[in-house]
Amino acid sequence: MRRVLGYGALGLLAAVSLLPFLWMLSTSLKSLDEVFVYPPRWIPREFRFDNYVTLWTDFPLFNTWILNSFKIVIVIVGAQVFICSLSAYAFARLEFPGRDLLFYLYVGSMLVPDVVNILPNYVIARQLGWIDTHTALIVPSMASAFGIFMLRQFFLTIPRELEDAARVDGASYWRIYRDIVLPLSGPAIATLTVFLFIWNWNDFLSPLIMLNTPPKYTIQLGLAFVNDARSTDWNRLMSGNLISLTPLLVVYALAQRHLVQGITLTGLKG
Amino acid sequence: MSTTGIASKRSAAATAAAAAPIGPRRRWRRAETLAGYLFIAPALLHSLVFIVAVVFVSALISTWDWDLISPPEFVGVENYTRLFRDGIWLRALQNTAIFVVLSVPLSIGLSLAVALAANTKLRGMTFFRTAYFFPYVASMVSVAIVFRWLYNKDYGLINGFLGIFGIDPIDWLGSCNTALPAVALVSVWKGLGFNMTLFLAGLQAIPAHLYEAAQLDGAGRWQQFRDITWPLLSPTTFFVSITSMLGFFQTFDSVFLLTGGAGGPERCTLLYLNYLQQQGWQFFRMGYAASMSWVLFALLLVITFVQFKVLNKRVNYELG
Amino acid sequence: MRRYRGRAARWLPAAAALVALAACNAGGGSEVSPETVVVWLPADNPGDIEVRQQLAERFEKAHPDIPVKVTVIPSNGYNEKVFTTVAAGNPPDIFNSGDIIIPTIVSKDYAYDLNEFIEKENYDLSVFYPEVIEGLQFQNKLVGLTDNWDTQVLYYNRDLFDRAGLEYPDGSWTWDDLRAAARALTSGQGPEKVFGVVHGTWFAPVFSAIWAHGGDILSADGKQCVMDEPPAVEAVQAIVDLIQEGVAPTPQQLEGQAPNQFMLSGRAGMIIDAGRWAAFELQETKRVDWAVAPLPRGPEGRAPFFHISMYAITKNSDSPGNAWEFLKYMVSKEAIKATVANQQGIPSRPKLATAPAFKKDELVQKHDTLEPFLASLPDVHPAPYVPNLEQYLDSMEVALQRVWTGEKPVEQGLKEACDEIEQRIAESG
C-alpha cells in the first residue's frame, strides 16, 4: 500500500515535470495551423515528422553544428573538472598563506552579474586573436568559481583519516588528490559534469558574439535561425529544441550511475 | 576593489578556519605551501585574465556615460547617485527582494524533499530522476507557453480546478498581487532539478553504516533524518542556499517570457536583472547598467557574508 | 580503493590531452584584412545564409579587388552582436538595421552620409520609391539604402467575410467600416469564439491608429509627449472600445499568442498587427483563405507605420569606399532579383515591384500581398527619429497595460505614459 502511494506521488510529480516536454513533443509533430489551437490539443490530428527532417534539409550544416557543440562542450568539461578539482583540493585541504583570501575572492566573483561581461570578454578575445574561433568559447570557460566552490564543499566532507593514513605512508599531495580525493568524489564530479555540459551546450550569447562563420556555429546558434525575423515556426522550433536537449537528458541519465551509487556503496568497502 | 573588503576582515578569516578544521593556526609548511600554490596555479592564471580583467573593465564602464556608440565620457559616481533617484530601479529592487524571499526557502525545501524521495532504490528511479530534472534543461520558451496556459484566466487548468470549489477565476499573471508569486513558482519549479541534483550528490557522501547503526538502535525515519541526514548534509545545504540566493537574485528569463521584458503588469514583476538588461542592451546606457550590476554585487556581498557567518558555523564538515 | 586507481590514472592523461587540444586550437584567428567589406545581416529566414553567400561570391567575381565577408546572424541576437562589436571598436563595415533601431543609429550619427558617394558619381536615386529614400533621410543626410520596404496592413479571412455576406475590405475603408465588420464577424463563445478583429497593442499598430486620428507621439522638437492630447486619446479609445465590446480579444484572451496566430487557427476575421512578414507565416496554413487590405482610414486619413530597414555603412569603417561598392550591389537589380523570394517586404525599386516576375509570386497571386501595400505607400509614416525612442516605447507599454484590460481609463493611461516620457526626456537633457 505504501509502495502504491509512493509511486502515486512520484508519478504525479513526474507528470508535472514532464508537462512542457509533452507539449514540446506534441507541438513538434503538428502542422503550423494546429499549433495555435487553444487550449492546446495534445495529440495532433496529423503527425508531421517533416518538422524534424526539414531541419537537416534547410540547414545543410546541422550535423556540423551538433559536432561543434560536442567538441566545445567536451573540452570545456574535461578542462574545467580537472582545473577546478585541483584548486578545490588545495582550498579544502592544504594550508598556505592567502588561501582564505583567494577562496573568498572566488566566491565574491560569483556575485558579479554577467550581463555586462560579454563586452570585456569580447575585447579580451579580440586582443588574443581568438575572434571567430572555438578557442574564444573554450578557454574562458576552462575554470569557474562555481566549480571550485562546489568541489571544495564536497571535498570537505571526505573523511580525513584516509588521507592521514596515506600521508603516514609517505604519499605526495598529488597522489592523495589522484588516488583518494578524486575517486571518492564521483558524485560531485558527475554533478559538475552534468551542469557544465548543460550550461555550455545551451550557451547562446558567447557563440553569437564570437563566431562569424557558419561552419563554426554551435547548435544553439544554428537553432536560432529557425526563429527568424519574419516568422516563428513553433513546430520546427520545438523539434529543434527536442533534438538539442536529447544529449542533455542522455548525459544526465548516464551520470546517475555515478551520482547515486557513490562511495557509500563501494568506495569505503575496499 | 571591494572584494578584498570581506576577506581582509579578521572575522572572515576566523570563519574560514572553522570551515577547514585544521586546528589552531600553525606555521606554514613549505612543501604544503608550494603544493597549494601549484594546485591552484592553473585556475589562478585563468581567473587573472577571465575574471579579474573582466571585472576590472566592468567597474571602469560603471564610471562612464556610454551608449556603446559614442566615445565614453567619464562621470565618476554619477551613475551610482542617479540610481538612488531612479524610482523604477527601486521598484525592481523591491520586487527582486520579495521574489528571492519567496523563492529561496521554497526551492530548498522542495528540492530536498524530492532529492530524499529520489534517493531511494525503487524500480524505475532513473526514469523519475531524469523526469524531475527535465524542467531544468527544457527551453524556457516552451516552459513559459505551458505555464501561461496553466495560469490563463479564462481557459487555464488552475482556474478550472479552483472552479470546482466555486472559486472565481483569478488573473494570475495579469494582476499585481499574484503575478510575482506566480513567476516565482515557475522559477522554483524550473530550478528544482538543479538543486535536487546537488542534494543527491550530497546525500551520497553520508556513509550507509550510520543509518544501519541507527536502525539497530531503533531510530525512526524522522529521527534518522534529524540526527544523520540533516547535520551531515549541511555543507551541501550551505552551498545550495548560497547558489540559490545568487540564482534567484539574477533571474531574468522567466519574467521576460511570462510577463514580458517590461515586467508587466505595470512593472509589478520587473526584476533587477530585467531592468539591468533593459538599460544596457535596449536603452544603450551601458555605464548605468554596469553601475547597477556593481550595486547588486555589493548587496549580494553583504548577504553572502551574513550567510557565511550565520550558516557556516552550523555546517558539519566531518563526522564528529 | 585499488580498483579506482587504474581508472583515475587513465582519466587524468585524457583530461590533460583535452586541455592541450584546446590550447592547440588557438591560432587560425580570423580578423579579416582592412580592405575586406564585412557585412552583417539579420536572418529573415534560414535560406538567407546561403543566398547571401552566393551574392557575395557573385560580387567578388565582378570585383576581384574587393573581398567581401557576409555573415548572417540570427535576428534574435543581432543587436547585441552589432553593438558589442561597435563598442569594442571592431564593427562590421555594413550592417542592416530596421524600424526603431534606425532612430538610435541616426540620432547618434553612427551611419555614413551616403550623399558623399552619391554626389561624386551621380548615383541615380530615382530608381527607388521616393517614399523609401525620404524615409531614410535624416537632417538632410541619407543614412542608408534598402532593397525592400514594408508597412502595417490589415489581414482578413475571406471565408468569414463570405459567410457573413460582407464585402472584402479595400482602400476606401474607414474605422467605422472596421467596427461594423468586426461586429458582424464576431461569433461563438469560450475557446472557440471567433473575434471580428484582433488589433495589436504594440507600438506599430497603435502609432498607426494615433496618426490616422490626427494625433502624434512627440512634438516636432521631440521635447514634449503629445500622446495625451485628444486625437491620440480618441485613437486608443477606439481600439479599447473594440475590446470592451467583445469584438476584439482582451489581453487575457490573447494570452501567449500573437494576433497572427488567431488568423492561423481561424479565430479572427481581421488582424491589424503586422506588415508583410506575417504573410510568410500565414502561407503555411491551408485551412484559412486570407488576403490583405490597406489599413482603414481614420478621421485624418491613413498613416500606416513604415517598416523600413536599411543597409548602412558604419562611421568608422576602415574601407568605406569598398563598402559603398558592395552596398550598391546589394540594392542593385541583380541582387534584389536574387533575394526577392527571401525578403519579407516589397522591392524598393518600382520596376521590380511591379515586374511580372514578382506578380507571379504565390503570395501575391493568391493573397493579394502587393497592391494593398502599393496603395498604402503614399501614406506611410516612419518612426520618430529621436534619441532614446526605446525608452519612450517602454513607458508607453507599461502605462497602457491596464488600459487594454479596461481597468484604467484611456486618458489616465496616456497621461501616465507622457509623464514618464517627459521625465525621461528631461533626464537625458
Descriptive key words:
heterotrimer; A: 270 residues; mainly alpha; 14 helices; 68% helix; 0% strand; B: 320 residues; two-stranded antiparallel sheet; 15 helices; 2 strands
Description:
The complex is a heterotrimer of chains A (270), B (320) and C (429). Chain A is mostly helical. Chain A has 14 helices and no strands. In chain A, helix 4 (62-93) packs across helix 8 (145-155) and helix 9 runs antiparallel to helix 10 (173-184). Chain B has 320 residues and is an all-alpha fold. Helices cover 72% and strands 1% of the residues of chain B. Chain B has a two-stranded antiparallel sheet with strand order 1-2. In chain C, strand 4 (137-138) and strand 5 (141-142) form a beta hairpin. In chain C, helix 9 (203-212) packs across helix 10 and helix 20 (389-404) packs antiparallel against helix 21. Chain C is globular. The model of chain C is unreliable at 1-29 (pLDDT under 50). At the A-C interface, helix 2, helix 4, helix 6, helix 10 and helix 12 of A face helix 1, helix 2, strand 2, helix 3 and helix 12 of C.
Please outline the helices and strands:
The complex is a heterotrimer of chains A (270), B (320) and C (429).
Chain A: H1 2-28, H2 32-35, H3 50-58, H4 62-93, H5 99-109, H6 118-127, H7 135-138, H8 145-155, H9 160-168, H10 173-184, H11 186-202, H12 205-210, H13 219-223, H14 234-260
Helix pairs in contact in A: 1-14, 3-14, 4-8, 4-11, 5-8, 9-10, 11-14
Chain B: H1 3-8, H2 10-19, H3 30-61, E1 64-65, E2 73-74, H4 78-83, H5 87-118, H6 125-137, H7 140-151, H8 157-164, H9 176-204, H10 208-216, H11 221-232, H12 234-249, H13 253-258, H14 272-282, H15 286-312
Antiparallel strand pairs in B: 1-2
Helix pairs in contact in B: 2-15, 5-9, 5-12, 5-14, 6-9, 9-12, 12-15, 14-15
Chain C: H1 2-24, E1 37-42, H2 48-62, E2 68-73, H3 78-87, E3 94-98, H4 101-107, H5 115-121, H6 130-135, E4 137-138, E5 141-142, E6 148-151, E7 154-157, H7 158-164, H8 175-185, E8 195-199, H9 203-212, H10 230-244, H11 251-254, H12 259-264, E9 268-272, H13 277-282, E10 290-293, E11 306-313, H14 320-330, H15 333-339, E12 346-347, H16 350-353, H17 356-359, H18 362-367, H19 371-376, H20 389-404, H21 410-427
Parallel strand pairs in C: 1-2, 1-3, 8-9
Antiparallel strand pairs in C: 3-11, 4-5, 6-11, 6-12, 7-9, 7-10
Helix pairs in contact in C: 9-10, 20-21
